[in-house]
Write a structure and sequence with these properties.
Elements lengths: L1 E7 L5 E7 L2 H32 L4 H20 L6 H32 L3 H23 L5 H32 L2 H18 L1
Antiparallel strand pairs: 1-2
Helix pairs in contact: 1-6, 2-3, 2-5, 3-4, 3-6, 4-5
């Protein structure tokens, strides 16, 4: 902020002198400090979201933990009725974010590792199933959630996604982990956690 001070010169005329008060610097400092706090808060939130996965151990154990968390959200959604529209919307939003993060981890890291291990057909099938997950989420967002059609679609979605999870947990993940060295499994875990952190 700049202030002007009026004074008289020796001829009696008014003259002005400008002086900067430094308020701009204080405001800019406060803005920068607020931005830095915002960035730190965002990083903290991301770390909190990714922490359960990162602390679970190997990549397959971490993905199983995320599957279990997804089942709990389905449980909570199925426990609602047509009068709980706000709760349904909030839980669906939570489910959508959790599944998006999970899909990024699998599609960007685990499925390519499956292809690399000679299981391209299985990886492609799993990737295709993720497209149907997105389709279910789209439909659930576009069906009025007080409608009986909404809960019916949710139950159909749960049946299909649990079959997908079962195939991963019981067959494909154990097979992939067994084919990889301990070092490769550790590297896969680290890479998967980095991908998850980006979208957490």
């Amino acid at each position: 902020m700049t202030t002007t001070t009026a004074t008289r010169n020796k001829n009696g005329r008014f003259t002005g002198s400008k002086r900067s008060s430094g308020n701009f610097g204080a405001i800019a400092g406060a803005v920068a400090g607020g931005a830095a706090l915002g960035v730190l808060a965002m990083i903290g939130r991301k770390a909190a979201v990714q922490a359960p996965t990162a602390l679970a151990g190997n990549w397959d154990e971490a993905l199983k933990l995320e599957h279990a968390a997804t089942r709990k959200v389905f449980d909570a959604l199925e426990a609602t009725d047509e009068t709980n529209t706000t709760k349904r919307s909030m839980l669906l939003s939570h489910l959508k974010h959790a599944l998006m993060k999970h899909a990024i981890e699998e599609e960007n890291v685990i499925y390519p590792a499956l292809r690399e291990a000679g299981e391209a057909e299985a990886a492609d099938a799993l990737n295709s199933e993720h497209g149907y997950v997105k389709q279910y989420l789209y439909e659930l967002e576009n069906i009025p959630n007080a409608s009986p059609d909404w809960i019916a679609k949710l139950r159909q979605f749960r049946t299909d996604i649990e079959a997908h999870m079962h195939e991963e947990e019981e067959n494909l993940f154990p097979m992939l982990r067994a084919r990889l060295s301990d070092e490769k499994n550790k590297a896969l875990t680290l890479t998967m956690n980095k991908e998850g952190f980006k979208v957490a």
